[in-house]
Design goal:
By secondary structure, the protein is α+β, with helices and mostly antiparallel strands. Helices cover 33% and strands 19% of the residues. The protein has helices at residues 2-28, 62-68, 109-116, 128-132, 134-137, 156-169, 174-177, 212-215, 233-242, 287-293, 296-305, 309-318, 341-345, 349-359, 370-381, 425-440, 508-527, 531-534, and strands spanning 83-84, 90-93, 105-106, 149-152, 181-187, 193-199, 244-246, 252-254, 260-261, 265-267, 270-272, 284-285, 326-328, 331-333, 336-337, 366-367, 385-386, 392-396, 420-421, 453-465, 471-485, 488-499. The longest helix is centred in the N-terminal third of the chain and has 27 residues, at 2-28. The two termini are 16 Å apart.
């Protein structure tokens, strides 16, 4: 791989001669427009502000390095780096990028436009990884007027397979592909995102005036959030199992064996009931049965019976940054806690109580991204520990050397991430075993025992106003699933907003096929050399 990098650098130096001549010409004319990266979304004007690149990890003076790497925006003298997958497959070739007519050559723009995003001098501005790593891609740091390559943890073969599976089972036509949804794969052992597909999709290379609204649809993978439905019962289970009660002798004991009746009850004149089709023969359940059968009544009772359930559940969520904007190396992960603030506090007490009960089973009170849901699943199959999700594998300069990620100054980017702790290993294992039972229950999900999958489905009901002013019920459907493959745990999350799917368990086929694709990835990953490993990148 090092030899390849040297050859690549040699050819880049030859290109530089021409680029330098052009740059000197414009320098002689006094043209000096410098670019600066803005916040989450760069506007056309922000793209033309002053820019000081980050300093190379060398002995050079940082200010001198920044001065050497200045470039003209209108007629750039720096060839941007590319965005590649973990194996060196170029996902977005920016070698001919000019910010006006060429937005980069994507290996598959439909798959990568929502994630990699774009950078354009028009009203479109910029988004996604192209925005977050604009400084890095254009920063030569006095090297040879070539920017740095950004290697992602994604595997393109797996990413494309996940996209195709989602289109096969969920987004089957153009209309459904415009609905918000996602499918992702995370390696729980490392926190690496191996696949991250977001809908609605679009092809940024075919951008037209008027397409801004479509392009600004932020991906629910991490940058948007929606009601999680019953997948949130996993966190309510943590609340329940960490809480205690006094037995007849006055001793504090755990809630493992406590049961609640499965009868429908009312709060503020509104029913709390189990999902349609819940078996009538079940009279009461403990937490294991409640997870297996996905009982709304049980988890509503948890919220009503645990003392100070709202602040306790919020603290549990905060352990993995749920309820806040959290900077990750591929964007801001968004989630919301709604059981606070002026809107909630203005509700009558009975309405607050109803909302609190509904939060126990994910129907109100909290909004999650797909990444947040993946982190919940990861905790259950990983002894309560949660890896920090990340997508940047390495950054390589034009000389073939790895950059120190900690010195690049990108929000959320680090060379090392400390795991988060959601709960104890004992509590996580109990919930994981209940997820295994849920996965095998044919009335709820229906995986086969030999598949060795633990899963939880979720359906959040929402009322959508139609064109005629009437309301129609739609569902946000979710499935979070865990599976051990070749000694490593993987988490898969699939969801769709406002779906026409009858049940969230209809997501079983895409999840099953995605895990099959992960098995193929695992086999190839263990037999093929990672080109970045030979380049010395952080793995």
């Amino acid at each position: 791989m090092k030899g390849f990098r040297k050859i690549q650098a040699f050819f880049r130096h030859r290109e530089t001669v021409l680029v330098l001549l052009i740059g000197l010409l414009f320098f002689a004319l006094g043209a000096a427009v410098i670019v600066q990266s803005g916040g989450y979304h760069l506007t056309a004007e922000e793209l033309k502000k002053d820019f000081t690149p980050s300093a190379e990890h060398t002995d050079k003076d940082p200010e001198a390095s920044a001065e050497e790497s200045s470039f003209n925006y209108e007629n750039p003298t720096i060839v941007p780096g590319n965005i590649l997958d973990r194996n060196g497959t170029v996902l977005c070739d920016l070698s001919h990028f000019d910010a006006e007519t060429n937005w980069g050559n994507y290996i598959d723009a439909e798959i990568y436009s929502p994630l990699i995003g774009w950078m354009h001098a028009s009203e479109a501005g910029s988004s996604g990884l192209m925005n977050q790593y604009y400084r890095v891609l254009r920063d030569s740091s006095g090297d040879n007027f070539h920017g740095k390559d950004v290697y992602l943890t994604l595997d393109h073969t797996l990413q494309k397979r996940v996209y195709d599976i989602y289109c096969q089972y969920v987004a089957k036509d153009e209309e459904s592909r415009q609905k918000i949804g996602s499918a992702l794969v995370m390696d729980v052992s490392s926190g690496e995102m191996l696949a991250c597909v977001a809908f609605p999709t679009y092809d940024i290379t075919k951008w037209r005036e008027g397409d801004i609204n479509t392009m600004n649809q932020i991906p629910v993978t991490h940058a948007d959030a929606m009601l999680p439905g019953s997948t949130f019962k996993l966190l309510t289970s943590v609340l329940w199992l960490e809480d205690t009660h006094q037995d007849e002798s006055g001793s504090e004991v755990g809630n493992d064996a406590v049961t609640f009746p499965m009868e429908t009850f009312e709060i503020a004149g509104k029913p709390i009931t189990n999902w349609n089709g819940f078996p009538a023969w079940i009279e009461s359940l403990d937490y294991v049965g409640a997870i297996e059968w996905s009982s709304n009544v049980f988890f509503a009772q948890v919220m009503l019976n645990v003392k100070d359930s709202v602040p306790k559940l919020r603290e549990i969520c905060q352990r993995i940054h749920i309820g806040e904007d959290w900077a990750l190396d591929f964007g801001t992960n968004v989630s919301r806690w709604l059981l606070a603030g002026d809107t909630f506090n203005a509700l009558p007490l009975e309405e607050q109580k109803y909302m609190i009960a509904n939060t126990g089973y994910g129907q109100e009170g909290v909004l999650l991204s797909s990444v947040s849901d993946a982190m919940i699943g990861a905790a259950m199959c990983n002894g309560g520990e949660v890896p920090v999700p990340h997508m940047i594998h390495s950054v390589v300069n034009s000389g073939g050397f790895n950059e120190d990620l900690d010195r690049l100054g990108v929000s959320g980017l680090s060379s090392h991430y400390e795991n988060l702790r959601l709960t104890t290993a004992e509590t996580a294992d109990k919930i994981y075993q209940a997820m295994q039972k849920a996965a095998l229950n044919p009335a709820v999900i229906g995986f086969e025992e030999h598949e060795n999958i633990a899963a939880k489905t979720g359906t959040a009901e929402v009322d959508v106003m139609m064109a005629d002013g009437t309301f129609q019920r739609k569902d946000h459907t979710w499935m979070v699933a865990c599976k051990e493959i070749d000694g490593r745990q993987y988490v898969v999350v699939v969801n769709q907003a406002l779906t026409d799917l009858a049940y969230s368990r209809d997501l079983i086929e895409p999840v099953r096929d995605i895990f099959a694709a992960v098995e193929e990835y695992s086999r190839s990953a263990h037999t093929a050399e990672n080109p970045q490993a030979s380049a010395g990148a952080v793995s």
